[in-house]
């Protein structure tokens, strides 16, 4: 009796969680080719990178706001807080393989039950997310517990290098009153990713890039984000 009761409970939990974590689709999506960020949404002339969009972009071409979750009653803006540069790989395809391998080596392999369809903006180009696939994000743990997770955008060609930009955050898990993933921290996830990448992969931390992207207004916040992106550079 006990074993048979587990299946419907698990299916019910799974259905509720999917409904909570996936953005609703209503009507046709806008064409990404028409995306034009507001001037204040782009950090200009970032050293070694160029003009970098400050925020993760949703599939409907809006600045990402954690699927409407509020922090202290304020809208939570999701910043780009990691930049990866690979001047070693000979092609963007090779650089992409190295980035994907590095994420797995760092313990951040693709995991399911996350929202998807995000993009990042660099030097006039909007590129979609890695990992690719329904409900996937890079994460260091399962969806039903606190975890560090994120999406990587690119590849972007910058001079002789390939650049990826990313947004990483730490989330908790909530069953009640509505299943979901409330925000915990941007800095904790960023720093953990840097430590794991530096210890286990060819991408090594090389300081920070100031994007001046910390928000603290009566209506909007970026939580504990300090306005900077961690710089990870491939060493071999």
Question: Can you offer a commentary on this structure?
Answer:
This protein has one domain (39-234). The chain contains three helices and 15 strands. It has helices at 2-21, 92-105, 187-200; strands at 42-46, 50-53, 70-71, 74-76, 82-86, 110-111, 119-122, 125-130, 137-139, 147-158, 161-171, 183-185, 203-210, 220-221, 228-234. Strands 5, 6, 7, 8, 9, 10, 11, 12, 13 and 15 form a ten-stranded mixed beta sheet that branches.
Main sheet characteristics: 10 strands, mixed
Which structural class do the helices and strands define?
alpha+beta
What is the residue-averaged pLDDT? 91
Enumerate how many helices there are, as a single number: 3
- First-to-last CA distance: 57 Å
Spans where pLDDT lies below 50 across 5 or more residues: 1-20
Rg on CA atoms, Å: 18 Å
Fraction of residues in helix? 10-25%
SSE order, one letter for each helix or strand: HEEEEEHEEEEEEEHEEE
Approximately how much beta-strand content do the residues carry?
Answer: 25-35%
Shape: globular
The structural domain count equals 1
Question: Care to count the β-strands?
Answer: 15
Signal peptide: 1-24
Keywords: Signal
In terms of topology, how is this protein built?
Elements: H1 2-21, E1 42-46, E2 50-53, E3 70-71, E4 74-76, E5 82-86, H2 92-105, E6 110-111, E7 119-122, E8 125-130, E9 137-139, E10 147-158, E11 161-171, E12 183-185, H3 187-200, E13 203-210, E14 220-221, E15 228-234
Parallel strand pairs: 4-14, 5-15
Antiparallel strand pairs: 1-2, 3-4, 5-11, 6-9, 7-8, 8-10, 9-10, 10-11, 11-12, 13-15
């Amino acid at each position: 009796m006990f074993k048979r009761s587990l299946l419907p409970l698990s299916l019910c939990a799974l259905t509720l969680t999917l409904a909570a974590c996936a953005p609703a689709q209503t009507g046709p999506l806008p064409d990404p080719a028409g995306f034009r960020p507001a001037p204040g949404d782009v950090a200009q002339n970032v050293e070694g990178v160029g003009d970098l969009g400050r925020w993760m972009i949703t599939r409907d071409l809006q600045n990402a706001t954690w699927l409407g979750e509020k922090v202290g009653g304020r809208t939570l803006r999701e910043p780009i807080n990691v930049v990866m540069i690979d001047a070693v790989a000979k092609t963007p395809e090779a650089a992409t393989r190295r980035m994907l391998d590095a994420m797995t080596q760092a313990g951040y392999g693709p995991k399911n039950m996350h929202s998807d369809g995000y993009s990042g903006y660099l030097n006039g180009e909007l590129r979609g997310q890695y990992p690719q696939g329904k409900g996937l994000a890079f994460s260091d743990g399962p969806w039903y517990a606190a975890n560090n997770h994120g999406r990587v955008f690119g590849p972007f060609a910058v001079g002789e290098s390939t650049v990826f930009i990313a947004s990483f955050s730490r989330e908790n898990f909530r069953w009640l009153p509505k299943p979901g993933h409330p925000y915990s921290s941007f800095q904790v996830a960023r720093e953990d990713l840097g430590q794991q990448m530096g210890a286990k992969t060819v991408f090594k931390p090389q300081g920070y890039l100031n994007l001046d992207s910390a928000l603290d207004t009566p209506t909007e916040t970026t939580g504990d984000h300090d306005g900077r992106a961690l710089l990870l550079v491939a060493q071999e």
